[in-house]
Amino acid sequence: MKRFWKIGGLVVLLLGGLANTVYTPTNRQFDILKNIEIFTALYKEVNTYYVDDLDPGKLMRTGIDAMMESLDPFTNYISESDIEGYRFLTEGRYHGIGAVSEKMGEYVTITELYQDQPADKAGLKVGDKIVEIDGKSAFGRTTDQVNEILRGYPGSSVELTIDRPGEKNKVKVRLVRGEVSVPNVPYSGMVSNDIGYIALTTFTRQAGQNVGNALKELKSENPALKGVIFDLRGNGGGLLSEAVNVSNVFIPRNELVASTKGKVKDWDRSFKTLNEAVDLDIPLVVLINKNSASASEIVSGVMQDYDRGVLLGQRSYGKGLVQNTRDLGYNAKVKMTTAKYYIPSQRCIQSVEYEDGEPVHIPDDKRAVFKTRNGRKVLDGGGISPDVYIKKPTEEGILKSLMEDHLIFDYVSQFCAENPEVAPVEEFHFQDFSGFLSFLKERNFEYESETEIMLQKLLVKSTTEGINLETNIQAIQQKIENAKQDELQAHKDEIIDLIEKEIASRYFYQRGKVQMGLRNDEEIQEAITIINTPARYKEILSMQ
Questions:
Q1: Is the pLDDT of residue 309 over 60?
Q2: Mean pLDDT score, 108-128
Q3: Phi-psi category of 305—alpha, beta or left, where left has phi over 0 and alpha has psi -120 to 50?
Q4: Fold of 187-390
Q5: In whole angstroms, what is the distance from residue 36 CA to residue 50 CA?
Q6: Taking the domains of the chain in order of start, what are their residue ranges?
Q7: Are 284 and 528 in contact (CB under 8 A)?
Q8: In this predicted model, what pLDDT tens digit does every residue of 505-538 receive, in sequence order?
Q9: φ, ψ for residue 370, nearest 5 deg
């Protein structure tokens, strides 16, 4: 610690001396150096004299995080312990156990396993609740805290104590960490006799090559292939270079994909395709949703700007910012926004407002108009708008409540505990909806609709204003209750679809979930219809 303060004092003296000898009080550089000196002095004083013992690293991290939070949501400090998570986002691999988890209640629970990775090989199951790690309680720990422990060098081991659905006693599992690699194209195949499908989940290394290979394989195995559905739903982005490579699968060499503009003009760049396309002409439908972001928006925006394919789904996230990392020493980095990117029409799809880290919706009449190559009108800001919009039932209402309360997840955990095996994806059909309803009853599931919430606000407001609406509101509440009794049955098909996808993911991993989802997917069916109707496909791409 003494050595730390000697070094810190020396830094302060050097910075202070530099400020006194080189800069004037009106100079911006002087302000920067002055505030660094103040920050260092404050850090030293608090650590030395605060009434309780402090963790210097934790205190500094709090200050750094607060500083980053004052900027955009994508500028972050990456500590040495966060490096593995950063590697996964950029490379699709990391050192760890190969599982996804989420905090449910007071414990972190395994929500997804990657096939043939350490966690899968050791016998962990989706639904396992981590109650101890190396003999120490995991009660109350956050997902990040648990993941920080589970990641580590290949060959090192960790012992987990698991509370597993269907098991009375706790289960101990010893895992040997490894190099975890997750495919960015988990599934490609045919969704009808002559229409292919490719799913891309992240823009990690070789994404363009993998998408290109998937398309080549579809064409080779299906000579009569007459269209492709390219699924970018839920794809949060990744490497800009791979966005260029993925675009290059469908558009020719030397076409502009994106340009970046920032404060440092020397860093402004334009990114063009470098190779020959795999296929320039095959009809293409690109699926996007509100969780399609960054590189996904570049690719979908490029397809739209060049009128290369039809976009179908919901408006995308709205992230038009470029991040670069800078080394800070001690294996730490800062990932900061250095520019905005612009797609071929020269529009930027960046949302300008955020609330709780999420983009705020921008009305169309406040977005600037640009033109595609065919002259179609497209808008900037707030994400990419699809050419064909389809409302998702899970975005609101009772389905959203079932998902957020993890009731489908918990029911499937119980189902798997009672069913060691199920039929292959192509043959499996969930047929025990009454059993699911009984499960909800056992869990005392109560769903409060948006209408009920608004009604309660109206009751409070009317009461404060001296207006007696209680009798009227009670009558409306009874109508709502009657409607809610039928809502589960009204959404039976959508609920079964969610259950089937969750079951498929447990037995057949990510590939099985994607494959199962194709069967009842309204957007897939609409995409097939569009490709099978050439006149409509051309009309969409030529509408002014």
A1: yes
A2: 96
A3: alpha
A4: 2-enoyl-CoA Hydratase; Chain A, domain 1 (3.90.226)
A5: 21
A6: 2-54, 93-181, 187-390, 400-523
A7: no
A8: 999 999 999 999 998 899 999 999 999 999 999 9
A9: -125, 175
- 3-state SS class at 176: strand
User: Which residues neighbour 292 within 8 Å (Cβ) at sequence distance 6 or greater?
Assistant: 232, 233, 234, 235, 236, 300, 313, 316, 317, 384
pLDDT reported for residue 85: 59
How far apart are the C-alpha atoms of 313 and 290, rounded to whole Å?
9
- Does domain 93-181 fall under CATH 1.10.730.10? My reply is no
Min mean pLDDT across 300-304, 307-311, 450-454, 463-467 is at 450-454
Q: Are 311 and 286 in contact (CB under 8 A)?
A: yes
Q: Please check whether the two domains, 93-181 and 187-390, share a CATH topology.
A: no
The residues facing 158 across adjacent strands are 175
Q: Which residue has the tokens 């069913």?
A: 419
Q: Which residues are catalytic?
A: 294, 305, 319
Distance between CA atoms of 231 and 218, rounded to whole angstroms?
Answer: 15
1 pLDDT band, cuts 50/70/90, is: very low
Burial of 13 (0-12, 13-18, 19+ CB in 10 A): exposed
